[in-house]
From TrEMBL:
Coiled-coil annotated spans: none
Family to which the UniProt record says this protein belongs: Belongs to the class-II aminoacyl-tRNA synthetase family.
EC class: ligase
Name of protein: Glycine--tRNA ligase
Family matches, as NCBIfam families: glyS_dimeric, PRK04173.1
PANTHER family, alphabetized: DNA POLYMERASE SUBUNIT GAMMA-2, MITOCHONDRIAL (PTHR10745:SF8), GLYCYL-TRNA SYNTHETASE/DNA POLYMERASE SUBUNIT GAMMA-2 (PTHR10745)
Organism the protein comes from: Fodinibius salicampi
GO molecular function: glycine-tRNA ligase activity
One Pfam family in the UniProt entry: HGTP_anticodon
Name of the gene: glyQS
Length: 489
């Protein structure tokens, strides 16, 4: 058997659309950039990944509790968090085409081109200049100078006719209430991360859930960023979902907890069924850390677009709680009765994008296989997160077979997401389920219903396409055992 893995992101984009995992938003109107909708299979897959995360993070930890904060928050939250001031990308416009680019990315791309052309020394020099471009005020001027001095042209038009570099805030702004004046005073933002909902509720949760430090608050929800370079499918979206957990610890224990959570989170990806050689951790160098972090690392997956961040783990120190204390005037501290000590807790954050996790799972599971001159596309998803768990087919449309197939469907439906299908040849039905990632297909045939004794059916396994004949009463046991023992190939 020859096996081909995913080489190109377009293959997954097409499969996702054809099989009902992910569609472009408002497609009949020409689509909306970097916004996507999840179809029937995608909704189930996404929900299963979300549920798995929730279970591992909350149910398996008696000191982590859940929260569901609003998308809208008081505008002061975003001043305190640093997002109003600093959540920017430096942008430059090509005057000829009116296309907008991220200025630092233009320089990065130019460096990559220099390296490709063997001009390593020039590339190193420019990289050093880029790495030392001023932060905040100086950044725009520095980047503009680099673009002009290196004669970097607009990628699409080829023109060398640039505007100044300007900071572009990534938060979406809207107005609150009917009497809004349209001034910035009324502005509210669509949250760009779920984390702040956790910080501002720190005291509420601590007081009501009777938690002692260390403890965590977990949350899943939508976040919004007006990404300028928005491409690569659901990897970079303007509306996306985050699964975040903030773990509050005593200062001084923060680094050990940071290491612990980085390792635990990497294990979660492996348990999800992602192959180990496609995962790695990537610590951020000190000079590239976000303003709130003293240590940070990405968990990266090797997508067809290269190694990219799927999750971030950060040691955020007491930055957020101290900022909210300062801006709100409300103390966000913890009193340790045993040690008779009061302090502002440090925070270890784990933050994963659910959409990037869905994309990782699809990319990792995708295979094209040639078997005895026949070919198939298959998603070898972990059965625990597969959208449909079991396909149930009568071999042909005959009452006797249909009745038993419906009975099995009815019996299993309570515990599993099942699909009854009687249309097309049995081979076609298997292929359809292979592409949907359905791990088990049960076929009801005459040999099974007409033999002496208990009815039997065949169960066909997606990954190796082998089949077993099983008495109907043992179906749950066999499926349960196969689900538990599944390993990625
Ligand atoms: N609270 C910390 C925080 O938001 P981040 O690195 O900006 O940190 C965390 O985002 C995760 O959210 C990323 O690792 C990524 O998986 C996901 N994410 C961020 N921006 C995204 C976007 N535009 N589209 C899809 N996922 C995104």
């Amino acid at each position: 058997m020859s096996v081909t893995e995913l080489e190109n992101l377009d293959t997954i984009v097409s499969l996702a659309k054809a099989r009902g995992f992910i569609y472009q938003s408002s497609e009949i109107y020409g689509g909306l950039g970097a916004v996507y909708d999840y179809g029937p299979l995608g909704t189930e897959l996404k929900r299963n990944i979300r549920d798995h995360w929730w279970k591992v993070m909350t149910q398996y930890h008696d000191n982590i509790v859940g929260l569901d904060a609003s998308i809208f928050m008081h505008p002061k939250v975003w001043e305190a968090s640093g997002h109003v001031e600093g959540f920017n990308d430096p942008m430059i416009d090509d005057k000829q085409s009116n296309k907008r680019y991220r200025a630092d990315m233009l320089v990065e791309e130019h460096i990559a081109k220099l390296r490709k052309d063997g001009k390593e020394e020039e590339a190193d020099e420019l990289q050093e200049l880029l790495d030392t471009t001023g932060k905040r005020e100086g950044l725009c001027k520095d980047l503009h100078k680099l673009i002009i001095e290196n004669e970097i042209r607009a990628p699409e038009s080829g023109a060398f006719d640039w505007t100044d570099v300007r900071q572009f805030n990534l938060m979406f702004k809207t107005q609150f209430g009917a009497t809004s004046s349209g001034d910035d005073d009324d502005a509210v933002y669509l949250r760009p991360e779920t984390a702040q909902g956790i910080f501002v509720n720190f005291k509420n949760v601590m007081d009501t859930a009777r938690q002692k430090i260390p403890f965590g608050i977990a949350q899943v929800g939508k976040a919004f960023r007006n990404e300028v370079v928005a491409r690569q499918f659901v990897f970079r979206m303007r509306e996306f979902e985050q699964m975040e957990m903030q773990y509050f610890v005593e200062p001084g224990t923060d680094e050990e907890n940071y290491e612990k959570w980085l390792s635990k989170r990497l294990d979660w990806h492996k348990e999800l069924g992602i192959r180990e050689h496609k995962l790695r951790t990537h610590p951020h160098p000190e000079d590239k850390l976000a303003h709130y972090a003293v240590s940070a690392a990405d968990i990266q997956y090797e997508y067809p677009i290269g190694w990219q961040e799927v999750e971030g783990v950060h040691n955020r120190t007491d930055f957020d709680l101290s900022q909210h204390h300062e801006y709100s005037g409300k103390k966000l501290e913890y009193y340790d009765q045993k040690k008779q000590k009061r302090y502002t807790p440090y925070v270890i954050e784990t933050s994963i994008g659910l959409d990037r996790a869905v994309m990782m799972v699809l990319c990792d599971a995708y295979r094209e296989e040639e078997v005895d001159g026949d070919s198939r596309t298959v998603l070898k998803l972990n059965p625990k997160i597969a959208p449909t768990k079991i396909g149930i087919f009568p071999l042909i449309k005959k009452d006797k077979l249909q009745d038993l197939a419906h009975k099995i469907e009815h019996d299993l439906r309570e515990d599993y997401n099942v699909l009854y299908d009687e249309s097309g040849s049995i081979g076609k039905r298997y292929r359809r389920q292979d592409e949907a990632g359905t791990p088990f297909c049960i076929t009801v045939d005459f040999d099974g219903v007409e033999s002496e004794g208990e009815d039997t059916v065949t169960i066909r396994y997606r990954d190796d396409m082998t089949q077993d004949r099983v008495p109907v009463s043992r179906l749950r046991e066999v499926i349960g055992e196969k689900m538990r023992s599944w390993k990625p190939e």
